[in-house]
What does this fold into?
Amino acid sequence: MKRTVCLMLAALLLAALCGCAKAPQTTPADTEAPAGTEAPADTEAPQSTLPPAEVTRGSLLPDRPADEDDGEWAKYSDVTAEELRGYIEKRVSEGFGLVGDAEGGGAKLLRRADAWIEISDDGEAGGECSVRISLASHEGGMDAEAALRAIGAEVSADNRIWTHGANAVRHAEAVIDITPAGFREATGAQLFRAQLGMEPDPGAEVPIFTTAVFIAAGERAMEILYACAAAADIDGDGADEAIIMGCGPTKGFFSVILEAFGVNGGALESEALAGHVMERGITSLAVHGGKPYFVWEKAPAGPLEFEMYLDYDEILIMDRGELPDHEVMAHFDW
It folds into this structure.
């Protein structure tokens, strides 16, 4: 079932962000410190004290089973302040610099040249804590300094207010390259997670920050809602586009955002964008025969795959009536 939700409703819903289920990222090829310590600049950050083969997501997560793990955020409960402080101190001893307050609640970021560790600490809610690991994957192309300049210009221009809501004064402070292997070679674009500083509340002593993901090429970067990426020829022109799937900015129901980017003459362009509302499930992207597919899965049934195609400037999903409660949100225009 498909029906278009009016543009005004979509615009209003864009102001509130919510989480969505996430499957592991799809590769472009066919594939079934002490409190308040400031992190060093990425170019000056100490190298890992572990052998390269040991720097993995698992090696950086806490030494205890997660209550939930969707491949992005590992969630823990009954975490004491002492346990969290011990985890942070261990990572600082391994060369990570801390942004945030090790003692208080709220967001914290541990940065090292080869990895970032984000911590969402909600100790007042039964000792709940979530951890996200971003591993550096730079394989050429735009370096951290160039990406920081491009992202800083984009944040200052605030071109994509729909990704973060209005009245958010932000500035780019650091980046880490999270581009999947082979993605830049196939599309000409890279993905960066950025630390964005925000204006603190009056009298606040601890820096306020958030993180966001940007796609970048040439001297341009655009903020995206990001869960996974794929490289595929969605428009049939013989060249692979960068296809991004992200959590839909909707409140009260499940949605995803799909966007396709091209690099034309070295310039990054958004070629198509659409939002889709559907029954909640595990979603990801796949590529078969050079074509992109949207993957939806809900237990106990196995995954369903639906070819994606362009309809002018929107990405549509060929659902054949099999994608539960599928609706197409209005085209986003900014």
